[in-house]
Design brief:
By secondary structure, this protein is α+β, with helices and mostly antiparallel strands. Helix content is 40%, strand content 30%. It has 4 helices and 5 strands, in the order αβαααββββ. The strands form 2 sheets. Strands 1-5-2 form a 3-stranded antiparallel sheet. A two-stranded antiparallel sheet has the order 3-4. A hairpin with a 5-residue loop joins strand 3 and strand 4. It is flat, with a radius of gyration of 19 Å.
């Protein structure tokens, strides 16, 4: 039997991160390419970050924009925050599973192709 289970549950609930976030998993772009776009929006206001993502000509901008809009919707609906006061507190891309494919080459050999995936996390917060 666990001791002090109610007290531990209360302490866990108090220390839980109350910032709105969204995670996009298994995106078929390598994390290093996603990280380039995430560096552009880190620390920006929500509206500025959306404008940057809409004008950025990178393939990673579209899934990041979807993830950011989802985090903003979570902030509005679940936590009652206003979109105008939000900013990008944290954003990062972790590596997901890699799809391994073969490219046939001469003499019956095959070169391995690694199709990398990424998990994109966007965490918003309110400006004080």
């Amino acid at each position: 039997m666990a001791t002090r289970s109610k007290a531990k549950a209360l302490a866990r609930a108090e220390s839980k991160d109350r910032r709105p976030k969204a995670i996009a998993k298994y995106i078929r772009i390598s994390p290093s390419k996603v990280q380039i776009v995430l560096d552009l929006i880190r620390g920006q206001d929500y509206k500025d970050a959306v404008a940057i993502l809409k004008t950025t000509a990178k393939a990673a901008a579209e899934p990041i924009l979807k993830c950011m809009n989802s985090a903003a919707a979570n902030a509005e609906v679940n936590l009652g925050m206003n979109k105008d006061t939000l900013y990008v507190a944290e954003c990062f891309a972790d590596q997901g599973p890699t799809l391994k494919r073969m490219q046939p080459v001469s003499r019956g050999r095959g070169y391995r192709i690694l199709k990398r995936t990424s998990h994109i996390t966007v965490i918003l917060d309110e400006r004080a």
